[in-house]
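Section 3.1 - Work completed
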Amino acid sequence: MNEEEHFKRLNDYFTKSKFGYDFFLYGAKHFSFYPENKKISEKEAQNLMHDLIGSKLSLNKSMIVLDAGCGQGVVSTYLAKKFGCRIEGISMVDFEIGKANELAKNIGVSDKANYYLMDYSNMKFKNSYFDRIYTIETLCHSADIKKTMREFFRVLKRGGKVAFFEYNLADDNKFTDYELDIFDKVIYSTAADSLKEFKPDRFENIIKETGFRKLEVEDITYNIKPSLNRLRRFASIPYLFVKLFNLQKSFPNLTIAVEFYKFVERNLFEYKIFSAEK
């Protein structure tokens, strides 16, 4: 894989998608957590997802934490403010670093949150630097998921914890040819080149083979489904034209909102938390 071409696609995608993420997800780039049988706003559900990261990692103010794929700093600034931990955020997307630093300044956590333009498969942090590492829907954008995981293992302290909030897909033979074509278009347009590594047992095996132990996997598909359904409702009408003219590659987020909801309904797409220790 040509890494330069991959990073260009990645930057192109997030630059073109910026308005949508800002308008519909308040600058975040992830689904939100809805408790069972409780009606709350998307913003409240988003904060509950952030709280879940803090809970899974048992965050406290003594810790140095890596946000791998920090986006515009929505998650990391929230965690720094609530838990008092120091967070180093990295992104491969140019404009996000400035937005993250601006957000940290605006909510008063500039002393706790720092951001760098950096590939999480080739980090400049020293060995055994972090107490905790998390990702939230970013690992699919790795150009080489195994190399990324080895880097996480390198920079994590002995006894440190990781939490990956990521997707999980059914095996290819469960999808129709049309659905597989949709995936290929979405993967190319969003530079999600490692998405197909998130198959039954495959990602878990990568985690274990890297050297992490005490792996735990939690399925929260039910809890993120209302968030996906909200986006589906917004996308349904414009997607009629996208589908009619076969424009899925040009409008990947509309495609994801509608088609991936169908995948969830058919148990082809799940959302899981993978947590482990070094």
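Second construct:
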Amino acid sequence: MFKFNKLSTLSLVSLSVMISLQHECNKVMIAEDYLENPPPKLDFALAANKEFFEGFDHLDYKWWKTSAANLKQFQIEMVDCIHFSLSHLLQHITRHEQTLQEGSELFHQHLTKDLENFIGNFEELQESIENEINSGSETLESFILGSMEAHQSSFVAGSCLQRTAIAVAMAQLSGMSLDELVNAYIAKNTLNIFRTTHGYKDGSYIKDWFGVEDNVTIENYLAANDMSQPDAIPALNAHLEAVYATVVVHKLNQYYRGAY
């Protein structure tokens, strides 16, 4: 029998880790001084909105073609929404001349309130939604799709706080625990840095790893590894390096077979 996991709010420790990692990631992906001297076109809100709408692609809304929902990839899109929303927050912290700790603590207070309000509203409807899913008159995927549609205006027009709260809530509603969300966030941050240091900006990076996007490698890695361990990031980096080396060799072999 289907039952939703208990929804929760992020701890200050988890949120602070995520914000700190995001700052380090942005310094690699954008520039060391990206906050003081933002490059042209740097629009974290727009990027977050794009990721939010990419989430729809994994919810099987296209009635005009045969497709299937993929909640795991939907969850990765929500993690990407948080990536850009926290980047937007970092700009806000800089503008208000706060330290990273001060900004994180204040943001956590407001985020907790927003998530608690969301959870309270959801809990009023939880039993009826679970009954609909168990009776077959509703599916989890269609419920998530409806929830995304209901919150899309608030996400697009909202602040970095509202975007983060909605993305965290949607990830949990789709079956992701908070621990899984934080682990996925750390892993995706690691992948983003890996992409950048392996030619993502100049277009030389190979994103297709044996017929699937590199995101899928992260999904598989998370299923078997705990990102809360002290050596989690170096271990993931080593794994990415090893797999990517085989991807490069495979692409070279394909090229030479085609050339001759």
